[in-house]
């Protein structure tokens, strides 16, 4: 009976989490559609407006669910923590580590060891169509969405006991899913995206405050966009 209840609970959590992923993907897709109408400014503005409204609603729903979840079940005591100089310096160290990782990845691409990720190609093409709005989305909105979904909600749905085994399983599984969301095939680029995801997962588990890994994610995307 207990096993059946556990499987039912986890099954519902998987369905709910996938629904949040779908909400994020649908809202971002509507936003990106505006780039297809660059030759028709009026239509582009209308689609962009719908995309911004959809993004605001999606972000509100996912953010609301995250904080509601923390109120009900929060064994790791995630929440807003005081910011100190020590935390800022460690965040900078994590950012430097991510930049070194990104440099190594770029070296592998330029050397022909691995191909340019399709996700990066799509972002580059979108940037040419809507440079300002794509920059806003990539640097500000996407990190908030992805940290809420892949770190915030995910880690409190699954492996949510506060011990070493569950914490590492939560970080690794979150990182691998984050990688798959950006590279939907199991290759070296998937591992590289997963590596970036592990930096972000570690930041969330270390700080127990989503704002820090959102900030880290924004800095990473800013440097990539530049």
From TrEMBL:
Pfam families: Rce1-like. GO terms for biological process: CAAX-box protein maturation; proteolysis. InterPro entries: CAAX_protease, Rce1/LyrA-like_dom. The keyword Manganese does not apply. It comes from the Bacteria. Keywords: Hydrolase, Membrane, Protease, Transmembrane, Transmembrane helix. Signal peptide: none annotated. One of its GO terms (molecular function) is endopeptidase activity. Residues 131-223 form the CAAX prenyl protease 2/Lysostaphin resistance protein A-like domain. The chain crosses the membrane at residues 12-35, 47-67, 88-114, 134-153, 165-182, 188-205. Belongs to the UPF0177 family. This is CAAX protease family protein.
């Amino acid at each position: 009976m207990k096993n059946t209840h556990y499987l039912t609970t986890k099954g519902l959590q998987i369905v709910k989490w996938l629904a949040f992923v779908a909400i994020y993907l649908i809202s971002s897709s509507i936003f990106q559609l505006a780039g297809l109408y660059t030759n028709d400014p009026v239509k582009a503005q209308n689609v962009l407006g719908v995309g911004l409204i959809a993004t605001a609603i999606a972000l509100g729903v996912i953010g609301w669910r995250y904080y509601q979840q923390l109120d009900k079940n929060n064994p790791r005591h995630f929440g807003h923590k005081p910011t100190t100089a020590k935390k800022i310096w460690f965040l900078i160290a994590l950012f430097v580590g991510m930049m070194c990782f990104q440099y190594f990845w770029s070296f592998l691409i330029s050397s022909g060891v691995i191909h340019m990720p399709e996700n990066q190609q799509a972002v580059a093409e979108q940037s040419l169509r809507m440079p300002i709005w794509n920059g806003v989305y990539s640097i500000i909105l996407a990190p908030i969405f992805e940290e809420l979904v892949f770190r915030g909600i995910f880690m409190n749905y699954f492996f949510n006991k506060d011990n070493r085994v569950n914490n590492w399983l939560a970080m690794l599984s979150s990182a691998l899913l984050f990688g798959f969301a950006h590279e939907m095939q199991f290759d070296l680029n998937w591992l590289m995206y997963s590596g970036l995801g592990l930096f972000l997962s570690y930041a969330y588990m270390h700080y127990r405050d989503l704002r820090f890994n959102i900030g880290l994610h924004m800095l990473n995307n800013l440097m990539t966009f530049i």
